[in-house]
Design goal:
Elements lengths: L2 E2 L27 E2 L2 H7 L18 H16 L4 H7 L7 H8 L8 H8 L2 H13 L1 H11 L3 H12 L8 E2 H10 L4 H16 L9 E2 L12 H7 L15 H14 L9 E5 L15 E2 H6 L3 E2 L11 E5 L8 E4 L1 H9 L3 H14 L18 H13 L13 H13 L10 H13 L1
Antiparallel strand pairs: 1-2, 3-4, 5-7, 5-9, 6-8, 8-9
Helix pairs in contact: 1-8, 5-15, 6-8, 7-12, 8-15, 9-10, 10-11, 11-12, 14-15, 16-18
């Protein structure tokens, strides 16, 4: 798995397209997980460095009993016997799914590494070509649902690399495995039942229902509950086909975003420049102010120009701490976070959409020798914070809300910029403080 800076804004597992930190049981307010499509299309060597912690549950009498009970529940929910016979015929837990579910990354993924992989020149060029190819369809979709075409193409690119990486697992097998596994059985049992309902509705045959190991499907990687709630049959053939039909794919993504509160009168946000004496306590989604207020506090566009005069509220985000770029983000950014609870993902969606429209790269330059922290180093940071009186709970290598609050408290006490960001400098200061204390 790969990691990036993120912040949870919602508890809406039914509104998730693709694989989010919620599916992995991690509320990574500081470091959140990429979607599976992001793993496939962004790419990372961290996957090759992970180890399997658990094996798949054995196919035994217990599974047979469990499956029989599932079938009875499915029948009680109106799913036909024929669908159950075809979809669940000879199904059994798949060890590879459990292996992927249990993986833990050795290294975190920095903002710059993530962004450079997610928004590169090759992807920008391909996105622009596809914008032109599907211009008429995208314009029609934009008009109907109120979601700008460039953003639809951006989501499409990040979720499945424009349809080239949609996952090669049987969704039914993957969800059966995860539903039978005890770790998050209730959530995946519900997703499995939704997947069976999708088959029962005639949208797709069981053999063609392929997706990620966590059940995300099609070119925009909808999990079954999202598919059932938001997928659209835009081409009028009687099926919602997110694997092959561009009308259905674009309309479904646009419908989902519209339902999440997307506003086509606004953009997503922009890179900004903060004054040297800026109060970092104002950074975060809990601080939502009109653009004019940020202007009065000295916030400017990244090139130094004034912020636009618009009746829009925004919040400040520092995805890699005070040393990295700053972003003033708006309502559509929050909508993106409801699609995928990762600040890195949301910034990448917005930045790719800007690049599609002809805008340039970020003006903040990446550091020359940026070193990602190991998961074990995050755990050490947490242990040291606890030792120094900043309770962050049991060390787990996840820099969530409690950990970031503890980091900020230590930074204030140590007269460091209180950005809540875990890096090697922070670890050194913590080790020194613990040694002298």
């Amino acid at each position: 798995m790969t990691f990036g800076f993120g912040r949870a804004l919602t508890k809406l597992p039914s509104l998730r397209a693709g694989l989010t930190s919620r599916l992995l049981g991690s509320a990574f307010l500081g470091l959140s997980l990429l979607p599976l499509a992001g793993l496939q299309t962004v790419g990372t060597s961290a996957q090759a460095q992970t180890q399997t912690q658990d094996q798949a549950p054995a196919t035994d009498q217990n599974f047979s009993v469990w499956l029989a009970a599932l079938k009875q529940e499915a029948l009680s929910k109106g799913i036909s016997q024929g669908v159950l016979d075809s979809a669940l015929k000879e199904v059994e837990p798949l060890a590879r799914v459990i292996e992927l579910d249990r993986r833990q990354p050795e290294f975190t993924l920095t903002f710059w590494t993530y962004l450079n992989r997610a928004v590169n020149e090759k992807r920008v060029e391909k996105a622009r070509g596809l914008m032109a190819k599907h211009a008429s369809l995208l314009a029609k979709t934009e008009k109907k649902y109120g979601v700008q075409a460039r953003f639809l193409v951006s989501f499409w690119g990040l979720e499945s690399n424009f349809g080239s990486h949609t996952g090669g697992f049987s969704v039914i097998t993957a969800l059966t495995t995860l539903a039978y596994d005890e770790r998050r059985s209730a959530f995946f049992r519900a997703q499995l039942l939704d997947a069976l309902k999708i088959i029962d509705s005639g949208d797709i045959a069981p053999a063609q229902m392929s997706g990620s190991w966590a059940g995300a499907m099609g070119q925009v990687q909808f999990i079954p509950s999202t598919f059932r709630g938001h997928a659209v049959d835009a081409d009028g053939d009687g099926r919602r086909d997110l694997w092959n039909s561009h009308p259905d794919i674009f309309a479904s993504a646009a419908n989902f975003l519209s339902n999440l509160g997307w506003d086509d009168s606004e953009t997503w946000g922009r890179e900004v420049r903060l004054p040297s004496n800026f109060d970092l306590e104002l950074v975060g989604f809990e601080h939502k102010k009109p653009i004019g207020d940020w202007q009065k506090m000295g916030v400017r566009r990244a090139d130094g120009r004034d912020l636009p005069s618009a009746a829009i509220e925004g919040s400040l985000v520092l995805p890699s701490g005070h040393k990295g770029p700053a972003f003033l983000v708006y309502g559509n950014f929050r909508a993106t976070l409801k699609w995928n609870n990762s600040i890195l993902y949301a910034i990448a969606v917005g930045h790719l959409a800007d690049r599609i429209a002809g805008k340039g790269k970020l003006l903040t330059e990446a550091p020359e020798n940026e070193t990602p922290l190991r998961r074990s180093e995050i755990e050490e940071i947490q242990a040291l914070l606890n030792r120094l009186g900043h309770d962050v709970g049991k060390p787990d290598g996840v820099a969530g809300r409690q950990t970031r609050a503890g980091i900020k408290a230590f930074q204030r006490k140590s007269e460091m910029p209180a950005d809540g960001y875990p890096d090697s400098d922070l670890l050194k200061r913590l080790r020194s403080a613990a040694a002298s204390g």
